Amino acid sequence: MASTRLRRTVTSALAVTLTAAAAVGGTTAATSTGGAEAAPTTDKAPSTLAFGGNGQGGRTDAERAYRDLLDHGKNAKILTAAHRGQWRVAPENSLPAIEAAFDDGAEIVELDVRLTADGVPVLMHDTTVDRTTDGTGEVSSFTLAEIKELRLKEHLGGAQTALTDERVPTLAEAMELVADRGLVNLDKGWPAREEIWDVLVDTGTVRNGLFKSDAPVDEVQAFRESHPDALYLHMISDDNLASFDEFGDDQPVGYEVVFGTEQDAVARAPFLERMAGEARVWANSMWDGLADHLTDEASLVDPSRGWERLVTTFRASMVQTDDVEAIERWLRTGEGDAVPRGSVRVQAEDFAPGGAGVAYHDVDAGNRGNLDMRPGEDVDISDADGNVRVSWLRGGEWLTYEVDVPRTGRYELSARVSSPYTPAGVYTVSFDGGPESERVDVLSTTSHDKQEVQASGVVQHLTQGRHTVRVSLPDDAFQNWNLDHLQLDRVR
To answer: For 369-401, how does the pLDDT look when each residue is reduced to its tens digit (9 = 90+)?
Structure first.
């Protein structure tokens, strides 16, 4: 829980565990093995800013998060915001996703608010219910009773995503749930701010809710003047850079900074220094265009390519992420997605040398991806928000990898994959030219660009030293998925 875990301020370079690759046949070897754990980092001293108002002295996680939100000093705690809740374990914008986000360490959940036909604020990102429920049509065309009849789809939804038994929550239900847990970033809700305000008042959660917009400053200030207890976060980019000065001495609690490149005026050090002196700085790491490619996926490879730079260079003290558990691990240890001790990982693009017919078979000519990492070879290598992977996997294709096993033993294979389809695909595995395994199903991650590790159930006894692993895609099954990496974990 957020109240008990160790957190630190990131004010200097972070310790990063790097793995070295060995040369294999004139190319870079594809394997890395887990090593010793990084040394513990320095814990941050707690904020001295007292929680004001009800005299409870910050006894709940929500009160502590509120206290920390108001602290924008140099030693302010880095706050984690879960994008649409923890959608990796429950439907986005659902009550279980909210609970899971706080359980995994977030202080803030970002939720999207729309109004029903009868004026009730409910949680829904899109203007329609099509992507995330079994219904169709505009949110505003449903009454509350009608929208409550719909069932939410798994994770990020989509046309082929399975239904769950979860229902569309009202904002009131969500705020009652978060009252003692943390804060809520009320995205998409500015047009419904009065209805949202009424919910916060009725549920006693005014201090839990963060209003947000990029509206003209005079419109924002009119709302703040008539609702003096409202917490407000302003979205800022080069398009409305003057907003910061227009707020004058009455600054919002924070700014959500959006920059396409670090050359944007809003991303330059002098401006960010001024902003950080007056308010919290919120950065988004979900995909490329939000903070010049400083993404979750890039951070997993090396935090200095994402989260670390957002904090140390761009003064972010709140980071919105699709990878809550990973960013929490980074805040504790300084590591991204380190290889576990004793495990072996091979990146999908680092297939063995030898060319077509020896190292791989691809059913279409050329590289359909956007990365020319293996010139002259036909494997489809692409970049998705900092994640380099083999894409457009199709039936009849296969890839061979060389792995260096550090210790004799039994190893289970897993694969980090992505696909919006159900079924997504099937593969088999063979070791050192031996027989193929039973078929392994690739499960939908409900997005081409959101990867997850899926265990295969394939266990193989391997001796210390180099082995080959072949992944084959049967041509009698539907195949449309992406492969980020394979991993062999020792079975103890």
So the answer is: 988 899 999 999 999 999 999 999 999 999 999
> Which superfamily, per CATH, for 344-490?
Galactose-binding domain-like (2.60.120.260)
* 361 flagged as catalytic: no
* CATH for the 40-333 domain, from 3.40.50.2000, 3.40.50.1980, 3.20.20.190, 3.40.50.970: 3.20.20.190
Per domain, the residue ranges of the chain are: 40-333, 344-490
Query: Which residue of the set 83, 155, 293, 448 is catalytic?
Result: 83
293 is catalytic: no
Q: CA quadruple 272, 275, 276, 277: dihedral positive or negative?
A: positive
Report pLDDT digits (tens) over 308-353: 999 999 999 999 999 999 999 999 999 999 999 999 999 999 999 9
pTM: 0.89
Q: Active-site residue among 72, 125, 293, 448?
A: 125
Q: Show the tokens assigned to 252.
A: 């919002």
Q: Which residues contact 148 (CB under 8 A, 6 or more apart)?
A: 167, 168
